[in-house]
């Protein structure tokens, strides 16, 4: 495909190649064409991020729900009521309000990627702060999610009910930008919806079949490698419901 210039545009690789071909046909005036190495690295990152972030979200959810048994049971009752088939379909997934609230709260406290890293390509101003071009910026999302001015004095507590009215009403400041586990704006994570759907499906199937609690061997110690992970593993004991 790279040699011939043929593109289909029905997956990430095809879209990137299509973008390159279109820019090439315009003589690449803006110098925005990607190299083959850029395209390969982008696909590798997409594959890694798509696996790591979803598995991290599901892992922390399975750790948190045994600690908060009331929310585990609320989520289970919702799943048993909404998901009538063996496997949930798209319509059923969209009606899992409590499950969505739980996942959002887990993302708030244990988001897979705790910081965003950006570089300014031109000088800019954010409020009274002037930032010249070529500056590397670290945006500590994990600190934003635990900011008491945004979320209240219980910012570090597991309070699923804060998302009862949706993301825009979850914090004290009426904005969705206080909660951005998948980034924000035109560069928001392309796999956001897929990751949430995948996690909801997996969690729903687990809740339908198992009651689970933490092993006495579990030690709560979040730490970051590529994503936020339990340092000593997640020792979880599953018990069949039937």
From TrEMBL:
GO cellular component terms, semicolon-separated: membrane
SUPFAM superfamilies from the UniProt entry: Cytochrome P450 (SSF48264)
Lipid metabolism listed as a keyword: no
InterPro entries hit by this protein: Cyt_P450 (IPR001128), Cyt_P450_E_grp-I (IPR002401), Cyt_P450_sf (IPR036396), Cytochrome_P450_Monooxygen (IPR050665)
Record's subcellular location: Membrane
Cofactor: heme
GO molecular function: heme binding; iron ion binding; monooxygenase activity; oxidoreductase activity, acting on paired donors, with incorporation or reduction of molecular oxygen
Family: Belongs to the cytochrome P450 family.
Name under which the protein is recorded: Cytochrome P450
Species of origin: Anisodus tanguticus
Lineage of producing organism: Eukaryota, Viridiplantae, Streptophyta, Embryophyta, Tracheophyta
């Amino acid at each position: 495909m790279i040699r011939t210039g043929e593109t289909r545009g029905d997956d990430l690789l095809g879209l990137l190649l299509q973008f390159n071909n279109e820019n090439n046909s315009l003589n690449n005036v803006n110098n925005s064409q990607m190299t083959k190495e850029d395209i390969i690295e982008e696909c590798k990152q997409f594959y890694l991020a798509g696996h790591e972030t979803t598995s991290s979200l599901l892992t922390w959810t399975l750790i948190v729900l045994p600690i908060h048994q009331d929310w585990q049971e609320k989520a289970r009752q919702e799943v048993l009521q909404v998901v009538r088939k063996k496997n949930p379909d798209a319509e059923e997934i969209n009606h899992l309000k409590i499950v969505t609230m739980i996942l959002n709260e887990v993302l708030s406290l244990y988001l897979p990627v705790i910081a965003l890293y950006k570089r300014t390509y031109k000088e800019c101003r954010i409020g009274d702060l002037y930032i010249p071009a070529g500056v590397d910026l670290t945006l500590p999302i994990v600190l934003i999610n635990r900011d008491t001015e945004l979320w209240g004095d219980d910012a570090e507590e597991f309070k699923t009910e804060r998302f009862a009215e949706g993301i825009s009403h979850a914090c004290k400041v009426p904005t969705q930008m206080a909660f951005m586990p998948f980034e924000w704006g035109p560069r928001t994570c392309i796999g956001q919806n897929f990751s949430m759907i995948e996690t909801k499906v997996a969690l729903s199937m687990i809740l339908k079949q198992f009651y689970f609690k933490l092993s006495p061997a579990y030690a709560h110690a979040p730490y970051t490698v590529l994503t936020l992970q339990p340092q000593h593993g997640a020792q979880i004991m599953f018990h069949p419901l039937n």
